[in-house]
Write a structure and sequence with these properties.
The complex is a heterodimer.
Chain A: H1 31-61, H2 63-74, E1 75-80, E2 87-88, E3 94-106, H3 115-129, H4 133-142, E4 151-156, H5 161-168, E5 176-185, H6 193-196, E6 199-201, H7 204-210, E7 220-222, H8 225-229, H9 231-234, E8 239-244, E9 256-259, E10 266-269, H10 273-292, E11 300-306, E12 313-319, H11 333-339, H12 356-359, H13 369-379, E13 389-391, E14 394-397, E15 407-410, E16 418-420, H14 422-428, H15 431-442, H16 451-458, H17 480-486, H18 496-499, H19 504-511, H20 521-532, E17 536-537, E18 543-547, E19 559-562, E20 569-570, H21 575-590, H22 597-600, E21 608-615, E22 624-632, E23 642-649, H23 658-669, H24 671-674
Parallel strand pairs in A: 2-10
Antiparallel strand pairs in A: 1-8, 2-3, 3-4, 3-5, 6-7, 8-9, 10-18, 11-12, 11-23, 13-16, 14-15, 17-20, 18-19, 21-22, 22-23
Helix pairs in contact in A: 10-23, 13-15, 13-16, 14-21, 15-19
Chain B: H1 22-28, H2 31-51, H3 62-82, H4 86-91, H5 93-110, E1 112-114, E2 117-123, E3 126-128, H6 130-148, H7 156-174, H8 179-196, H9 200-224, H10 231-239, H11 252-264, H12 270-273, H13 275-278, H14 290-322, H15 327-352, H16 369-388
Antiparallel strand pairs in B: 1-2, 2-3
Helix pairs in contact in B: 2-3, 2-14, 3-16, 5-6, 5-7, 6-7, 6-8, 6-15, 6-16, 7-8, 8-15, 11-14, 14-15, 15-16
The chains are: A alpha+beta, B mainly alpha.
């Protein structure tokens, strides 16, 4: 309705007079205005059309879908935690079980929606339960895509004061709930701590890998030992329950279980709890003996006891140890540090988390001599078991280089000078007798390969035993190739040209299990099992079977899976050679000059075995590792039932610390036989109750 | 044939305000519009009764009664305004402008802070939101400004001046911060310019300019590091396209509203069964998201009735623009109708996911005294224009 401006009167505008600026033109409904109003009307129609269309789509066409979304809003699904499977010893006695505890949990979906209010609530909660806010936030962030699993803030076995406070002030903490949970409990305290392992909440890195296997954030995961390796069997299946809540997460209906939780399967070990206890005490006993001999550096040790017929591990002890209950419930760095389980405190406590039986590597010392003997016999370096060689106080090797100094290698007993056969040499553990063999191995032509190392490898040295619960060290079996690889200009700038050469001393020392050779107690036990069962290499194993968790307490549990052991493999030893070595072991424990006769000579059960006193390399500190490995009963119609390998770190002579420790284990094992004969005619061992 | 018959002459003699008798007023009232508004009021009250039934335990009628009182006050005001000649507003254009700006400034200075924004003035027993009344006042003074320059509307200068004038209250509202209401003001400005007869080219330029500003504010400037809008504001404006992108955070409202609307189905879930509303999953269910709440409770049928009533009001309102007595009245009517349409569209749109989330209430339904009374007063002005207008649009000859 703008002013029309000056137009001539002819064009139908009807103007007669020119427009007077003092006079306003009357308002008329012009076509332009009509157009504009029409446009407005069209816009209005379009707008409403859009709205109607959208409403039609939302309500009429997709109504049910959104109805379901609205219903889901109020449905809160809650995970019902499944109790973890137990870990049992070979007689079914529980070594690790569950105990009820209380957990304080956060449901992120029900926390206050605004950032400020959420922070405020978390701060208050943190003050009450003594858990840092950052930890809670991290947990919430991890649960981003999983509304079903709550964030566990803190769990404890005992009902702590904060729990009561939270119960009373439930309204002030929306999204916080208190539930019952299961926590690991260890009826035997620190028995077999490293072997059993511990359980902790799954970390983000672990989750990334294990997500495909069905793990979710918040799951408990076994971190080491049996708990870790057999977590799949132990974890069970969580159940699901549902309830209706309002927008603050407050329950508006009772909890309805949709899926029952399934308890994890119990894992039965080959370990005998009594023998394990005896082994752990034996190490402590060995250390105390070392102290009596002024070996004040003795601070650790390991004992492995296995069945040479099958490879079943009856006891596997490592000292120092820790109390695994420290991981159960509210874990604090303080508690862990007190046990020596953190990076900074581990060294001071001599690494209690380390399982020395599988991962501790030591020089083998004289316990390696049977390997040398068998290799020498098999390759002809030693003509026969009755070959006589001198045992002198020292052994001299001329230098390879012209004008060089000769090297002298000493015997433990510097005054001896006696010719002897192999069994005697083993019995008195003459070093120089074996030095000769070592030098003979050194002078073997290259075409023979490295026979000593080859046979040692056959006996399982330098590689993992394959035990079913890791981790495991493969030790070190030195070869000339290894030398060349290890000592290069980069790694040994001052002496590499000399060090990279395999010298006579290397073979000589290897013959008595010294210098670069490194073995684990489990590898030694496996080798002595081979000696015990007439030349068959077993694969040690810890877990016998997995049983159904829960179940009827009155009927035997259903076996879900049996882990059959690998059949022992013959390594192709000549039985006469083996018999000579076995005789040597018998000499060591029962002949007049046997190194361990003082320990085993009067033991009613015939035991055969070898002492070892290994020097650590580099031997700036001349602490000897005290070894003893052997088996029994020896020489009976039934095959030997138990191999024991004991090591006392820095314990001195093998006969002084390790051998008596091993004896303690045998005493426990043969308890029934040793008991005064008031027993009945039955010889089967009944399941003893704790 | 003096063309000046019945027209207002300036400087020649002062004009007497036409007195309108009650009887003639009744005769010329648009009963359709009145009926639609009354029906809308009644429907809104009924809807609120259902929506807020569970808000206060033990008192299901609390909000109903309050709204009822506001509605009564508003109706009285509307009736009073019917008898006020629109010319009164035109004569006091400047006064209205000054009054509007000063009230806005007052809000910014001494307003009550609620949820990080200053929109309310607390006067003891009543908290009122001046920006709601400001919508009507804004249209009034802008219409007066443009009507006084009726013959110079073709000039750029007039348009620029008008926009500059309008920007002051818009900015004052924007910094409260209240983007939604600022948008309504901007829409009213656009409508006023449109109905006043600003040239198409100018309108196109303005439209382009608006588009550029939106692009700048939402995308280009933030990319360069300058943030005109706060983070959550920008997210609310653009988040409506992806309601599931952050269901627990920024797009929570949109997703819940959509669920509520959809869950209503054809017939609705009833008051007791509307869990989104009842169990508080739908935020602001009595104000911003009242429509979604209504949709959940009464279904497609229920909201269709509401939308049809709105459409009726808009239609009759456009008719008023056509038969207005003079330019000023027409512009006022156009501004009022379009602002009304805009509010309805944006609020309903935000509830169903076709428009960004802003704090615009749903006219006649959302709980809130200021908005209800302001809308009724606007209807009163509309009716006042109606009865002083012609019986039917007079063609220009």
């Amino acid at each position: 309705m703008a002013s029309s401006g000056a137009r001539s009167g002819r064009n139908g505008s009807g103007r007669f007079l020119p427009p007077d600026p003092r006079v306003e033109t009357p308002y008329r409904f012009t076509p332009q205005l009509a157009l504009r109003i029409g446009i407005l009307g069209a816009v209005a129609l379009l707008a409403f059309g859009v709205l109607f269309f959208r409403l039609w789509a939302l309500q009429v066409l997709s109504g049910p879908q959104y109805l379901r979304a609205a219903l889901d809003n109020q449905l809160r699904s809650v995970r019902i935690e499944a109790p973890r499977g137990q870990i049992l010893d070979d007689k079914g006695r529980p070594l690790v079980t569950n105990t009820p505890g209380t957990a304080i949990e956060l449901h992120p979906a029900d926390l206050p929606k605004t950032w400020a209010a959420e922070q405020a609530e978390l701060q208050r909660l943190s003050k009450i339960v003594h858990v840092p806010v950052l930890q809670m936030l991290r947990g919430i962030a991890e649960r981003k895509g999983d509304p079903v699993t709550p964030v566990v803030v803190r769990e404890d076995i005992k009902r702590i004061a904060p729990v009561n406070y939270l119960y009373e002030h439930e309204q002030e903490f929306p999204g916080v709930s208190i539930t019952n949970t299961y926590l690991r409990s260890y009826p035997d305290g620190d028995l077999a701590a490293q072997l059993l392992g511990y359980v902790n909440e799954i970390s983000p890195q672990q989750l990334k890998v294990l997500k495909r296997k069905g793990y979710t954030a918040g799951d408990k995961l076994g971190q080491s030992g049996v708990e870790g390796t057999y977590d799949f069997y132990l974890r069970g299946h969580d159940g699901l329950a549902q309830l209706r809540v309002d927008s603050l997460g407050r329950p508006r209906s009772p909890l309805v279980t949709k899926r029952q939780p399934v308890q994890g399967e119990s894992v039965k070990l080959t370990i005998d709890a009594d023998l394990q206890r005896a082994a752990e005490n034996a190490i402590r006993y060995g250390i105390s003996l070392a102290y009596q001999n002024h070996k004040w550096q003795a601070d650790g040790g390991s004992i492995v006891a296995l069945d040479p017929r099958t490879g079943a591990i009856r006891a596997m002890a490592s000292y120092p140890t820790y109390n695994p209950a420290v991981y159960s419930g509210h874990v604090t760095m303080k508690k862990l540090a007190a046990q020596g389980l953190t990076g900074t405190t581990a060294k001071a406590k001599n690494y209690p988390a380390l399982d020395r039986a599988t991962s501790g590597v030591y020089p083998a010392g004289s316990t390696f001599k049977p390997v040398t003997a068998l290799a020498a016999l098999e390759t002809g370096v030693l003509a026969s078991p009755s070959t006589i060689l001198p045992c002198t106080g020292s052994y001299t090797v001329q230098s390879q280089f012209a004008g060089g100094k000769p090297q002298v290698f000493h015997n433990v007993d510097p005054f001896i000078d006696e010719p002897m056969t192999l069994p005697t040499a083993l019995g008195v553990s003459c070093d120089t007798w074996f030095y000769q063999l070592g030098y003979d191995f050194y002078t073997q032509p290259p075409s023979a390969g490295h026979p000593l190392q080859a046979w040692a490898a056959k006996f399982g040295f330098g590689r993992k035993t394959g035990v079913d619960v890791g981790p495991e060290s493969s030790g070190l079996l030195p070869t000339p190739e290894w030398r060349k690889r290890t000592f290069t200009a980069k790694t040994d700038p001052s002496n590499w040209r000399i060090d990279r050469e395999w010298k006579p001393g290397d073979s000589i020392q290897l013959a008595i299990g010294q210098k670069d050779l490194l073995v684990t107690p489990l590898q030694m036990a496996r080798f002595y099992a081979l000696l015990a069962n007439n030349g068959r290499l077993v694969r040690p194993y810890l877990v016998e079977e997995a049983q159904e968790g829960g179940g009827n307490p009155h009927s035997p549990p259903r076996i879900v899976k049996t882990f059959s052991p690998m059949a022992p493999q013959s390594v192709g030893l000549d039985p006469t050679y083996l018999a000579a070595v076995q005789d040597g072991l018998w000499q060591a424990t029962h002949s007049t000059n046997g190194t361990a006769t003082g320990v085993f000579g009067n033991f009613p059960i015939p035991i055969a075995g070898k002492t070892g006193t290994a020097q650590k390399v580099p031997s700036s500190d001349q602490y000897d590792q005290s070894w003893w490995c052997g088996y029994g009963p020896y020489g009976e119609t039934q095959p030997p039932q138990l191999v024991v390998c004991a090591l006392i770190e820095n314990g001195g002579f093998g006969a002084e610390a390790a051998a008596p420790a091993a004896l303690k284990v045998f005493q426990q094992f043969f308890k029934q036989r040793l008991a005064p004969s008031t027993t009945t005619t039955t010889t089967t061992t009944t399941g003893t109750t704790r | 044939m003096i063309e000046a018959v019945g027209s207002r002459t300036r400087g020649l003699r002062p004009r007497r305000a036409e007195a309108v008798g009650a009887a003639s007023a009744l005769r010329r009232l648009d009963w359709f519009l009145v009926g639609a508004v009354v029906a809308l009021l009644a429907y809104g009250l009924w809807a609120i009764r259902g929506i807020t039934a569970h808000d206060i335990t033990g008192n299901a009628d609390y909000y109903l009664l309050r709204q009822g009182v506001y509605a009564a006050v508003g109706c009285l005001g509307a009736v009073a305004l019917v008898f006020v000649d629109p010319d009164v507003y035109r004569r006091h254009t400047r006064g209205i402008f000054v009054g509007t700006v000063s009230i806005m400034l007052l809000v910014l200075l001494v307003g009550t802070v609620s949820r990080a924004s200053k929109r309310w003035l607390d006067i003891g027993f009543f908290r009122f939101q001046p920006s709601e009344f400001g919508k009507l006042l804004f249209v009034l003074f802008l219409a007066g400004f443009l009507a006084d320059r009726a013959r110079r509307l073709g000039e750029t200068r007039t348009v620029v001046e008008a926009i500059a004038l309008a920007c002051i209250p818009i900015l004052l509202v924007f910094v409260q911060p209240d983007i939604g209401t600022a948008m309504v003001y901007a829409a009213a400005l656009g409508a006023v310019l449109f109905v006043a007869g600003v040239r198409w080219t100018h309108l196109a330029a303005l439209g382009a300019g608006l588009l550029i500003v939106i692009l700048l504010v939402l995308w280009l400037l933030p990319a360069a590091g300058v943030h005109v809008l706060k983070g959550y504001q920008a997210q609310r404006l653009t988040g409506f396209t992806h309601p599931d992108s952050d269901p627990a955070g920024a797009t929570y409202n949109v997703a819940q509203a959509r669920n509520a609307v959809g869950a209503g189905g054809v017939r609705g879930r009833g008051v007791a069964g509307a869990t989104q509303t009842k169990l508080n999953f739908l935020p602001e269910h009595a104000t911003d998201f009242a429509f979604a709440s209504l949709a959940e409770q009464r279904g497609f049928v229920g909201v269709s009735v509401l939308l049809l009533l709105y459409l009726l009001v808009v239609w009759r309102g456009l008719k008023v623009v056509a038969i207005a007595r003079d330019a000023f009245s027409a512009i006022v009517a156009g501004g009022i109708v379009f602002a009304f349409l805009f509010q309805v569209f944006v609020n309903v749109g935000m509830n169903i996911g076709v428009a960004p989330v802003t704090g615009i209430p749903l006219p006649f339904v959302s709980v809130g005294g200021s908005a209800l009374i302001a809308n009724l007063l606007a209807i009163g002005v509309l009716l006042s224009i109606r009865i002083r207008g012609a019986a039917r649009p007079k063609a220009y000859r």
